[in-house]
Amino acid sequence: MTKLFNNILVPVTYNRKSEMALQKAIYIANEFQCHVHLLYVEGKGMAEADKHLIEALREGEIQDPEFWLGQWKEKYQHQLEGNHQVYLAFRKGNKEQQIASYILQQKIDLVILDQPSGLLPSGLLPVQLRGGLININRLTRKTGCPVLALKSSATLQHIRNIVLPVDARLPVRKVQFASYLALHFNAKIHLVAVAEPVQGTTSVDTKYLLKTYQLMKEHTDLDVECHTLNGESLADTTLDFARQISADLIVVDAGKSLTQSGMLHRFFSKFIFDGSRIPVMTVAPSSAMK
């Protein structure tokens, strides 16, 4: 199978969560023999406000990014196997735009983000903090690069069950990445679709579920299971099922099918990765990439 991961990007700030994301990136880099890129973006027009805010919260522990990134490089470079490197980069401007630009310029294959633990959607956050947030759905569609969002408590050392939701299209790129990971970790892939509410009929999603299963069985020797489940939305159904089987990873498409049900979730476009304690990899379908 073609090697999919060569360069991993970790956008960082000076906090424990970013360092934990880096630690997970080092593990993945060693598993797949990759370089690791650390990118710090200083928001244009917000640097002083952010600096004072962080100083207040951290009681003066703020340091120059070149200094602490240099410390991280020195600390983690020797943990990378082979001749692979930890690269450092500094940018100014809109965080999401600078990350997208770096992905395209440096041919990044995977982005790893530490997932905030807060429950408030971005629309309710203070203005000075909003500029530092990243819209995973939009970033993935714009760059075509998969994004792995995980909380600090997540572990990637033992991936045994991967959940892959299927809607009314053939998820070729999603299958490609899920299969690549499953082959490496000897994991089982669980295909999930929402059942047709009218008994005795076959939904479009179910038809594509069977097509996806057939595709994987014809072209791989992976352990694959199909699950047609009752539920209001694919996002909710996927999350519930993933929790039930103690899944280690969810691989999803970037798009509206990820939006969880409920008025509040729809109003704030709360996507599946916002509500998941399980690591979620978001992959843009070929038709969605811009």
TrEMBL record:
Residues 5-117 form the UspA domain. Transmembrane segments: none annotated. InterPro entries: UspA (IPR006016). Pfam families: Usp (PF00582). CDD domains: USP-like. It comes from the Bacteria. This is Universal stress protein. It comes from Candidatus Pseudobacter hemicellulosilyticus.
